[in-house]
DNA sequence: TGCCACAAACCGACTGGACGGTATGAACCG
DNA sequence: CGGTTCATACCGTCCAGTCGGTTTGTGGCA
């Protein structure tokens, strides 16, 4: 039970921080607010986290790990580049909708991290980016993807959709998340597919 | 000449604020830093701006006005929905690249404004959004755009590209801005165009 | 032209409060 | 007892915004 408590304190703090950062922004949220919302005290919080920006990083870390893991799992299943890309895209859209608040914080508050941690985040995102780029390159080699537009632009065209989700998608809105995932993926694939126009 | 000086102080402050907000973020930039970078004093600055967040809003205001004006100009020229959409898209990408720093600040720091000003910004963006949506709807009526995907998703698919530019486009990079504009627009149009797959 | 009155532009030291982080020690546990 | 887990009071810093005062420009008047 002792172990239960220790983890539950850290978890409650992270949960509260996530909520408040998403609602008010990182800079507008004080440590005091967080610990009050979590039902703990500052002393407890600083026992598990070394600083305020440590909280931010912990939130990022969770999301980065999750996304990379899912990408690897899907890629490992194998298949044509197009099939893999489709599966990856649909999955990342759904996942991003499940973690909308994390996304909001992520894209807003990266620059509030220390320089080292920003580098770490960039490194992790680059891993993801490069793995995805390899899929696209493979698709070009297989002849299913166009090669008249730079890969960097093609990739930006998809990442942008994921990036933008927190800005428009609403859980209360009419759109279903799996439908949106299929639609955005379809749009991306139609754009990237080789065809004679 | 007196008039020259007054405007140049306000302009210098805005210029410095733009630079610093983009480089360090709004919350990490002190008013003192801004006025030093602008070569003026706090007193001078507070003579022209009522608060720090007034600076932020002024930056937004400039960009919002510019974009809306350009949209209206292009729409006014007339033409098929597809032609107008193409022109609008290419223009907004180029403009957004010209104002990359503004975009960086915009998407990062909106939530640092007062509630009223956030509303004002949202209202202005909605104006733009609705004008664009009308173009898309017209394109559907003309039979050139698909109608099997909600307009909101189609629009998000394009706005996301614009939104994402500050995150990947580099002026020193290999891509030319007009080329990128054409490429992103082509990808969007291919996605939105009605066709029998 | 020289002088005055008034206003706008500008200066910069100061303040009041918020906030991240710490120091100290109590309770509890093995 | 030694170490972990927390509670509480406190500290030092930073910073947006202010305010009394000074300079600069401007129009009127003799």
Structure in words:
Two copies of one chain form a homodimer. By secondary structure, chain A is mostly helical. Chain A folds into two domains: 1-49, Arc Repressor Mutant, subunit A (Orthogonal Bundle); 51-192, Tetracycline Repressor, domain 2 (Orthogonal Bundle), CATH 1.10.357. Chain A is built from nine helices and no strands. The longest helix of chain A is centred in the middle third of the chain and has 27 residues, at 115-141. The first copy, chain A, is elongated and about 60 Å long. The first copy, chain A, starts with a helix and ends in a 5-residue tail after the last helix. Chain A binds chain B through residues 24-28, 107-108, 111-112, 149-150, 152-154, 156-157, 159-161, 163-164, 167-169, 174-175, 180, 183-184, 186-188, 190-192, 197, and chain B through 24-28, 107-108, 111-112, 149-150, 152-154, 156-157, 159-161, 163-164, 167-169, 174-175, 180, 183-184, 186-188, 190-192, 197. Chain A binds a DNA duplex (30 and 30 nucleotides) through residues 2, 5-6, 9, 30-32, 40-44, 46-48, 51-52.
């Amino acid at each position: 039970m002792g172990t239960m408590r220790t983890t539950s304190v850290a978890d409650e703090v992270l949960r509260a921080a996530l909520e408040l950062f998403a609602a008010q922004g990182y800079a507008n949220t004080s440590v005091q607010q967080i610990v009050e919302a979590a039902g703990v005290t500052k002393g407890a919080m600083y026992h598990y986290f070394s600083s305020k920006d440590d909280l931010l990083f912990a939130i990022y870390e969770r999301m980065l790990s999750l996304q990379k893991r899912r990408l690897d799992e899907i890629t490992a299943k194998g298949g044509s580049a197009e099939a893999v890309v489709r599966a990856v895209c649909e999955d990342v859209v759904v996942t991003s909708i499940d973690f909308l608040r994390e996304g909001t914080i992520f894209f807003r508050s990266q620059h509030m991290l220390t320089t080292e941690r920003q580098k770490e985040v960039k490194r992790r995102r680059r891993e993801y980016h490069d793995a995805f780029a390899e899929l696209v390159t493979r698709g070009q080699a297989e002849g299913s993807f166009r090669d008249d537009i730079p890969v960097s632009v093609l990739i930006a065209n998809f990442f942008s959709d994921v990036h933008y989700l927190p800005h428009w998608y609403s859980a209360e809105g009419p759109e279903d998340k799996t439908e949106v995932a299929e639609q955005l993926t379809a749009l991306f694939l139609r754009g990237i597919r080789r065809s004679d126009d």
